UniProtKB/TrEMBL annotation:
Any Pfam family the entry gives: Rce1-like
UniProt xrefs under PANTHER family: MEMBRANE-ASSOCIATED PROTEASE-RELATED, PROTEASE
Keywords, in A-Z order: Hydrolase, Membrane, Protease, Transmembrane, Transmembrane helix
Record's signal peptide: none
Name the UniProt record assigns to this protein: CAAX amino terminal protease
Superkingdom classification of source: Archaea
InterPro entries with a match to the protein in the record: Rce1/LyrA-like_dom (IPR003675)
Organism lineage string: Archaea, Methanobacteriati, Methanobacteriota, Stenosarchaea group, Halobacteria
Residues spanning the membrane: 20-39, 51-69, 89-112, 124-147, 159-176, 188-207, 258-282
GO terms of molecular function: endopeptidase activity
Record-level GO BP terms: CAAX-box protein maturation; proteolysis
Residue stretches making up the CAAX prenyl protease 2/Lysostaphin resistance protein A-like domain: 128-223
Length: 289
């Protein structure tokens, strides 16, 4: 894959690119935080968990804003990897399911614990699943359109694609540090988020579509970040998990006593391996051509 090196993005002055990048990041945080604040004041949806109501506002706002920006600055959407979604998103949804499965099965196999499935209450099940999907989509759409849509393109067209992939992934990881500040797992979480960002960036670059990365990100967040599947010690186990795996002790590979199994060195290795697989697969295809 070789994105257009004479893209209209290159014609935009660097100061405009820098300014627009900062504005897009500010809008991202505003949408992610503001949508929940507004929803808490205005909405009460019985078929959703309270924390998911903001997604009903945030998702359409994010799509409207980020899909309008190319027209505002005079660049084609495909220059920032925003193309018409194709059937390839189904393939990447499958890849995401496999990756989630590897992490789940690997963690359960490496930890001694108790598995429980909470699916007897249909109303609870549908409420949690729908809320998880909406929350997963909100974060994925908002973050991917900014990081792998605009920032990846801006840096790539001006500084080169290897630098763009690495730098945007590091920034993505650093901005996730506050999620676990003070827990003793901050540095590891940054590394895990950075490796996830690397995977999303490679997928976006090689497939020329940010929507494939959005699907990967959304499936991951839906399952793990909203704890549809919760692999945690007893003291931090989610009461809303549909599938819970409770363990007492974990080795360093699975987070020890300082990080959850889903934010552990094992997950870091799985994400790095997935990134390497994408890189090798697409480079091999390009060599054959």
């Amino acid at each position: 894959m070789s994105p257009d090196r004479n893209s209209p993005v290159e014609a935009v002055e660097e100061w405009r690119v820098a300014t627009l990048s900062l504005i897009l990041l500010a809008v991202m945080f505003t949408v992610l935080i503001g949508s929940h604040i507004v929803a808490n004041s205005l909405l009460s949806v019985p078929w959703l968990l309270p924390e998911a109501e903001g997604a009903l506002i945030g998702i359409p706002v994010a799509l409207a804003v980020y899909l309008f920006v190319p027209r505002l600055v005079g660049i084609p959407r495909k220059s920032v990897f925003i193309t018409v979604p194709s059937r390839s998103i189904l393939r990447w949804a499958g890849v995401a399911v496999v990756l989630v499965g590897v992490v789940t099965v690997g963690s359960v196999a490496g930890l001694s614990g108790t598995l429980e499935i909470h699916a007897s209450d249909g109303r609870f099940l549908s409420r949690v699943l729908l809320s998880a999907v909406l929350l997963g989509l909100l974060a994925a759409i908002t973050e991917e359109l900014v990081f792998r849509g605009y920032l990846l393109s801006f840096v790539g067209h001006n500084w080169g694609w290897p630098a763009a992939i690495v730098l945007t992934s590091i920034l993505f990881g650093l901005l996730h540090n506050s999620k676990v500040a003070g827990t003793g797992a901050s540095e590891l979480y940054v590394l895990v988020a950075t490796s996830a960002g690397l995977l999303y960036a490679l997928v976006t670059y090689y497939t020329e579509s940010v929507w494939n990365a959005i699907v990967l990100h959304a499936v991951w967040n839906t399952v793990f970040h909203t704890q549809v599947i919760s692999i945690e010690p007893a003291e931090t186990q989610s009461e809303r998990a549909i599938v819970s795996y409770e363990y007492a002790e974990a080795s360093f590979l699975f987070g020890g006593n300082w990080a959850a199994a889903t934010v552990s060195p094992f997950v870091l290795l799985a994400l790095v391996a997935a990134s390497a697989a994408v890189l090798l697969a697409y480079r091999s295809n390009s060599t054959k051509k």
